Amino acid sequence: IVGIGAGSAYLFDVLDGSQFFTTTFLKSEPSGTHAERGYWSWSSDGTWLAPTNAKLTFAGESFVCDPEGKVLAPGKLRLAGRLMRCKRTPTLISRSFWDYGGAKKGMIILNPSKLEQLSGAVQLYVYAHECGHQIYGGRETRADCYAVERGKREGWLDSAGMNQICTFLEHHPGDWVHPPGTKRCQIMTRCFGKAKPRRASR
């Protein structure tokens, strides 16, 4: 199975009963072009188990997949008590990833050690934000709005949860990609206000 998207290509092939995984980042990044290769084995619940000390590169920085690391098939991720899905996108779980979450075309990365420090609403926001990148590419503001709109629509985000997200982001100074946290909060609050709530079950 080959998936190719803007900035990355993923190749999955079965070799000798193991799952062979290659990712090549084609977009220019701080460390240049990268190609990584690792071997993954199937577990009984349909997840891929990461090999010990497999090195991957994300946004020009390398991180190591710990022995407990695994790739969850779409629809297999349980976060804050909810099963979460981002279309056909798998989720790489790695406690060595340096941020709460990240996204490359065709892959979401989550660090459970960091996410465990957050409230349930903020955990779900992080995942939904990274899912937004799978849909809208690198548009950070659109990924933010997608996350809070989805949260309101699915019923896991309310006004209290929005306040938690804003508190989570308030000290972020912003960078060349992300607006400052206070600005992101203002934009997301507007998007949340305009979003349609979950329909009441009949």
Model description:
This protein is of the alpha+beta class and 202 residues long. The protein is 30% helix and 30% strand. A hairpin with a 2-residue loop joins strand 12 (101-104) and strand 13. The relative contact order is 0.10. The model is unreliable at 1-55 (pLDDT under 50).
pLDDT averaged over residues: 76
Distance between the termini: 41 Å
Oligomer: single chain
Beta-strand residue fraction: 25-35%
Supply the number of helical segments: 5
Biggest sheet statistics: 9 strands, mixed
Per the principal axes of the C-alpha atoms, what is the gross shape? globular
Strand order of the largest sheet: 1-2-3-4-5-8-11-13-12
Low-pLDDT parts are: 1-55
The string of secondary-structure elements, in order, is EEEEEEEEEEEEEHHHHH
Structural class: alpha+beta
Strand segment count: 13
Rg is 17 Å
Q: What's the helical proportion of residues?
A: 25-40%
What is this structure, in a nutshell?
With 202 residues, the chain is an alpha+beta fold.
Name its key features:
alpha+beta, 30% strand, nine-stranded mixed beta sheet, two-stranded antiparallel sheet
